[in-house]
Design brief:
10 helices, Chloramphenicol Acetyltransferase, 16 strands, alpha+beta, 432 residues, seven-stranded mixed sheet, globular
Length: 432
């Protein structure tokens, strides 16, 4: 395994929209969910092996020019956040870094490491957001073999997963020459999801996380194993679990069990929090390309001592259905902002329960990100410093699932040896 490699920065620059943003679009009011979302960068890494189509000099220029062109449509990303209420769309640009790496992509494929790849991302998750900070950072890493790793880091203040996917898809299509109207973002204003112009700014509270030493491990569920797991997780209530439901339930069960054992307990309340795309839930429904944060967490609790797999799937399905019915009521008869903030609060102290944060990046179509030299061979994420975090990503065949799980060292040791989990998942296999 390559723990550290030499990364040489060739250039750092600001890429601005190819055409200036019109004056009437230079002020964008942040939505209610944007305002309550803590600033932080989420990063995606796309790996492109060397090929005859990968002319480094030409394709670096292609990345720059297509990024500049697509920013004319995603002009918000080239702006700056002011007072947590407004984005000043002033065309200051996004950060673009070109770097050379003294290693081969093969070295990373042999034993993927979520900690090691921090060398290839342009900004860390917890880096502060100031009035001068770019909202988007890109780092193009060129390897000795001629392979390319593109890391895209978007700020969560204005991009949820769907918005990030919309941007990346449009950027690659612009580079490939296949951009069309259906890929353009939709910007909303004057709706129930947006605070009125000139309203008092909401400052999100500083989130305090316990400084617990964590480790991140990768588990890969192949398509055939997911089918077996779905059969095991099915019940009369949920006869056909989705692959995300089945995998999430098993990971939750194994992680919660490990925590209970290490604490010397027989039973402990466990909570799963997972962001849900609300674009189709609000009234009237929003366009799927609506740009900004249109996700809100669905919270499911379990106090089942055994945490039966079938029962967990039922709870996940019921939790989502209940959320779908109740969430639109947030915008009726009162202050939506205060309701949204209140809904995020976990009623018990952290010491009284285990909170697991699940995020699914499945079906985000990231494997279709072709800038003109083919699809990525692999997609990954860097480790994050928050205990009990779970990220699900499509495997390269878009049928299997890769799970990036962050736990305490003690809990991870038990999870990695859990026989039920290893019946369905492989622990960090190499990239074939």
């Amino acid at each position: 395994m390559v723990n550290s490699v030499k990364v040489e920065y060739i250039s750092k620059e600001m890429i601005k929209p190819s055409s200036p943003t019109p004056e009437n679009l230079r002020r964008f009011q942040l939505g209610l969910i944007d305002q309550i979302t803590p600033p932080g960068f989420h990063s995606l890494l796309l790996y492109y092996p060397s090929s005859d189509n990968l002319n480094i000099a030409a394709n670096m220029q292609r990345l720059r020019s297509s990024l500049s062109n697509v920013l004319t449509h995603f002009y918000i990303l080239a702006g700056r956040v002011i007072d947590n209420t407004v984005i000043k769309c002033n065309d200051e640009g996004v950060a673009f870094i070109e770097a050379r790496v003294d290693a081969f992509l093969f070295d990373i494929y042999e034993e993927p490491d979520a900690d090691m790849v921090h060398q290839f991302i342009p900004i860390e998750m917890g880096d502060p957001l100031t009035p001068t900070s770019p909202l988007l950072h890109v780092q193009a890493n060129i390897f000795k073999c001629g392979g390319l790793l593109i890391a895209v880091s978007c700020n969560h203040k204005i991009t949820d997963l769907k918005s990030a996917s919309t941007f990346i898809k449009a950027w690659s299509a612009t580079a490939f020459g296949s951009m069309n109207e259906t890929m353009l973002p939709k910007y909303l204003s004057g709706t129930a999801l947006h605070s009125p112009e000139g309203s008092h700014p909401f400052i999100p509270p500083v989130v305090q996380f316990k400084m617990t030493k964590c480790v991140t491990s990768r588990f890969v569920f192949e398509d055939s194993k997911i089918k077996e797991l779905k059969t095991k997780a099915a019940s009369k209530t949920v006869q056909q679990p989705t692959r995300v439901e089945a995998v999430s339930a098993l990971i939750w069960k194994c992680a919660a069990r490990a925590s209970t054992i290490n604490l010397g307990l027989t039973n402990r309340e466990s909570v799963m929090m997972r962001p849900v795309n609300i674009r189709k839930m609000v009234v009237p429904p929003l366009h799927e390309n609506s740009f900004g944060n249109f996700v809100y967490p669905s919270i499911v609790r379990s106090e089942n001592e055994e945490m039966d797999l079938q029962q967990l799937v039922i709870q996940l399905r019921n939790g989502l259905e209940e959320f779908s019915k109740s969430f639109p009521e947030v915008f009726q008869d009162g202050d939506a902002l205060s309701k949204l903030v209140k809904g995020l609060q976990i009623t018990k102290k952290d010491d009284d329960l285990d909170l697991y944060c699940f995020t699914s990046w499945c079906r985000a179509s990231f494997y279709d990100t072709d800038f003109g030299w083919g699809r990525p061979k692999w997609i990954s994420v860097p480790s994050i410093p928050f205990k009990n975090s779970v990220i699900l990503i499509d495997a390269s065949d878009c049928k299997g699932i890769e799970v990036w799980l962050t736990l305490s060292e003690e809990d991870m040791e038990l999870v990695q040896s859990n026989k039920e989990l290893l019946q369905f998942a492989s622990l960090n296999p190499k990239i074939v």
